[in-house]
Design a protein that fits this description.
- This protein is mainly β and 74 residues long.
- It is built from no helices and five strands.
- Strand 3 and strand 4 (54-55) form a beta hairpin.
- It is globular and about 30 Å long.
- The N and C termini lie far apart (25 Å).
């Protein structure tokens, strides 16, 4: 299980959204995001009990029904 949180740039102390989900063996995870967060940009934060908390370098824009984010991209 991983915990995924979304942080608005205006408030990096409190997440706008947090959920837990399974991380698949291929490194992907599916997370339902509330429609109220659509059209805005957030930092994506991933936590796992055995690893360091990881933040996206840039804000990620949440539009449409699917957002794909790759933590391995430069």
């Amino acid at each position: 299980m991983i915990t995924v949180s979304l942080y608005a740039s205006s408030n990096l102390n409190t997440p706008s959204f947090t959920t837990s989900t399974m991380l698949h063996v291929d490194g992907t995870a599916t997370i339902p995001i509330p429609s109220t967060l659509g059209g805005s940009s957030y930092y994506v934060v991933v936590k796992h009990r055995n690893s360091m908390e990881t933040w996206s370098k840039n804000l990620v824009l949440f539009t449409g029904s699917t957002v794909t984010f790759d933590f391995t991209a430069p």
